[in-house]
Amino acid sequence: MPKVSVVMGVYNGEKYLSEAIESILNQTFTDFEFIICDDGSSDRSVQIIENYANQDNRIVFLKNNVNRGLAATLNRCIEISKGEYIARMDCDDLSLRDRFEKQVRYLDRHKEIAIVGGAVYLFDEKGKYGLRRSKSKFNKVEVFKNSFFIHPTVMMRKSMLLSVNGYTVSKYTYRTEDYDLWCKFCYFGFQGANIDEVLLYYREDRDAYLKKKFRYRIDEMYLRIEWYKKLEIPKYYLPYIIKPIVAGLIPKRIMRIYHRKKYSNKVGSIPNIVLDNM
Question: Which CATH superfamily is domain 1-92 in?
Answer without folding.
Answer: Spore Coat Polysaccharide Biosynthesis Protein SpsA; Chain A (3.90.550.10)
